[in-house]
Amino acid sequence: MARRRLVYEGKAKILYEGPEPDTLIQHFKDDATAGNGEKHAIFDGKGVLNNRISEHVMLGLNAIGVPTHFIKRLNMREQLIRAVEMIPVEIVVRNVAAGSLSKRLGIEEGTPLPRPIIEFYFKDDKLGDPMVTEEHILAFNWATQQDMDDMIALALRVNDFLSGLFLGVGIRLVDFKIEAGRVWEDDFQRIVVADEISPDSCRLWDVKTGKKLDKDVFRRDLGDLADTYTEVATRLGILPAGGGAGESGPKLVH
Description:
27% of the residues lie in helices and 33% in strands. It is built from 6 helices and 13 strands. Strands 8, 9, 10, 11, 12 and 13 form a 6-stranded antiparallel β-sheet that branches. It has a 5-stranded antiparallel β-sheet with strand order 1-2-3-7-6, covered by helices on one side. The protein has a two-stranded antiparallel ribbon with strand order 4-5.
């Protein structure tokens, strides 16, 4: 498909004008960043893997009635998505203490949480994506109360789906981040899951060994990110054991 007008370029993805009104082409880059861009590297094939993993997850969510912006995968690096009005808030769902939660509260990493915890972060790289409360979001009109209710409900449904999906292949879903956007269907507004869901936006640990299978491998210099993401894709059945493109089902881990 011929390139169209560049709409936006971020750290890990590029958005182009789509072939139809209210559509975009989302291109996955091989770049990996951490610390709000302070650490940067390129891993050959990372974008291809994230494209395939995110497609797999979004299709699963669509199938159970969780609305997303995903329409279809176009090629190895690109997806056709619905254009949405993005809400400038990241929604983080935590099942196990890790990362910034452990640092902020002094809770040992790996401690199971008594219930999923939902946090919100204002999307602003210059400010370091600060954590905010529901009161901030409402006061500054980033979202309405109805938007908030819908985002929380979506986040919990995504958590249930992802927890089961990954547990079935021997992976613990520690936490994850999603973004949400508004779409209009006639005069009806709907909140949908947007951006991507991949090992870039999830914290994933092997159930038996605790091995990290997400971007912490890059953040903490634990190995090659492309190899790690290949393992996740292989377990999910997106890639066969040899690493080539395939369509086999997920590999159950006992």
